[in-house]
Fold this protein.
Amino acid sequence: MVEGGAALVTGYPSFVVRHLARRLAEGGRKVYLLCREKFEDRAWQDLADLGSKVKLVTGDVVAMDLGLSGKEVRELRTAVRDMYHLAGFYYLSSGDREMDQVNVEGTRNALAFAKDLPGLKRFLHYSSAFVSGNREGVIMEDELIEPDKYRNSFERSKFLAERLAQEARQDMPVTIVRPSLIVGDSRTGEMDRYEGPNSIIYVLAKLPVSMSLPLPGHGGYPLNLVPVDYVADAMVHLASLPTTVGKTYHLVDTNPLPASKVFELVCSAADRRPPKRSIPLNLASALLKMPGIERHWRSPRLFIDLMNQLVIYNSINTTEALAGTGIKCPPFPSYVKHLVAYLKRK
């Protein structure tokens, strides 16, 4: 059971945040959703059916006290028991300064705000499996080792942010989660094509059948995908357990498919021919800049790198914490058709 009291969630309008807020509210929690002013109308539309279970508070994690009014701060300090910090900047073309402002300083501000909540029972920090950068091999949940190289400012900023969260564990009830590449809902197929790896499926499903898309690289390494519903359910449960305080959890597919198989399954669901050939990595970026592809596929360089990196995210902490709950990452073949069908309806 989820512990009582209200929850404060940062990071709207993230696709994951919308699912998390809904899970919490449907589970009987009062949810305060931190929302920047320009997204306020959208938030009301997205969550209108939840009524008074969700209350919007307008602010920004880059500001002191999250940019909230004195009255709002006092209300939150009285009501909030759990804080889920998901706010972040994800556009990989952005530089260190923009990423650091939201991902690093925003985390610092969120931790400072949470520390002043008298009834705080949990601060859940939403990190990323990709804090490991270009490291290969087995990545353990209980380690945070700086890599030799970050592939982008996002990975660097999330590493620094997680380090702040780890340091805060000394005197705060912090739990850290590291999801891998998040796709749509495994049950409904709902997806946000502008976020993360959903662009993979979007491109393969939407390109003209006559346009062939070869596989970047040999495609033999694992491509770790997780559906948004699994991530939301896992976060809610992990934040409810006393035993998860001070620990880190990989929210990943424990049986990831090779990238070539992912391509094949998406193509099959979209009634397309699967890639019959691959191209060297040094040509892949040029291919993904072709007219008709670039406008649909964000951050192609990261996708190519992830497809061609031999890394396994060990998830023993997650497996133990979720044992017996029924919460587990479904296999990609079981829901790929739902994702493609959703896109075709759009």
Observations:
- The chain has a mean pLDDT of 89.
